[in-house]
Amino acid sequence: MNIHASILPKWRGAAPIQRAIMNLDKVTGVSIMKIEEKLDTGPVCNTYKINMENNFNSAEIAEKLSFIAAEKILDNIDDILEDKATFVDQDHSKATYAPKIQKIEGLIDWTSNAENIIGKINGLYPVPGAFFISSGERYKILKGEISNGIGNPGEVLNDYLEIACGDKKSIKVTEIQRQGKRPQNIGEFMLGSRIRKGHQI
Q1: CA-based nearest residue to 30, from 45, 153, 38
Q2: Alpha carbon separation from 170 to 112, 177, 197 (Å, rounded)
Q3: pLDDT score at 55
Q4: By the number of CB atoms within 10 A of the CB, which of 31, 70, 91, 186 ranks highest?
Q5: Alpha-carbon span 44 to 58, nearest angstrom
Q6: Residue 184 is inside which H or E element, if any?
């Protein structure tokens, strides 16, 4: 038996939580399943769903799913031991896959829409992280929120690191980590940063 952090057959594989957030899914959960030779293909006896609340990151969703799994697993084991569990085959035609996250996937494309960028920031938190490169240095955006600033994609719109996206919206960065440095809130970061209004990322 195995506990998988998605509603199977969606997001089989190594990174289901991250992929669900990056895909802007509204619902995720855990599946209690039998292990088979192929990856995450076994029949499922129970699924437990949660809503993907706005701006939750992968660490927060993982914690929620861990609580659910810990709460429900003993009931499922009891049902299996008492021969009360019913396992249902997955619909393999509806399967999607969640391959391991590659570090390069964290690079932000500012021509994307703001929702997709926030999905990347939240989905890849805390590692490998969503990032941009400026003057040869890597900056990991740990937290941000969507705003209505308008500018050229990648343009810094003010001195509080609000960055224009490709859909006439923007991302307000609220927590950031410069390469080799500790995480900082945006006020602290901007005190010593050369990234200012008008800068193109």
Answers
A1: 45
A2: 10, 19, 13
A3: 87
A4: 31
A5: 24
A6: strand 183-185
| Mean pLDDT computed over 127-136 | 96
Q: What is the pLDDT of residue 54?
A: 77
Task: Tell me the average pLDDT of the chain.
Answer: 96
Angstrom distance (rounded) from CA 21 to CA 190? 28
Please tell me whether residues 142 and 64 are part of one structural domain. no
The whole-number average pLDDT for the span 183-197 is 96
pLDDT confidence bin for 53, thresholds 50/70/90: confident
Measured distance CA(34)–CA(30) in Å, rounded: 13
Locus of tokens 């490998």 = 128
Cα–Cα distance between 65 and 76 in angstroms, integer?
16
Report the number of distinct structural domains present in the chain.
2
Residue span of the structural domain in which 129 resides: 103-191
Q: Is the pLDDT of residue 114 over 80?
A: yes
Ramachandran region, residue 68 (left: φ > 0; alpha: ψ -120 to 50; beta: rest): alpha
Query: For 131-152, what is the mean pLDDT?
Result: 97
C-alpha dihedral over 65, 72, 97, 28, to 10 degrees? -50
Report if residue 196 sits inside a domain: no
Going by the DSSP 8-state scheme, the letter that residue 200 receives in this structure is B
CATH number, position 107: 3.10.25.10
For the domain that residue 76 is a member of, what is the CATH number? Answer: 3.40.50.170
The confidence score (pLDDT) of residue 174 equals 98
pLDDT at 29 over 80: yes
Of 43, 69, 94, the residue at which a domain comes to its end is: 94
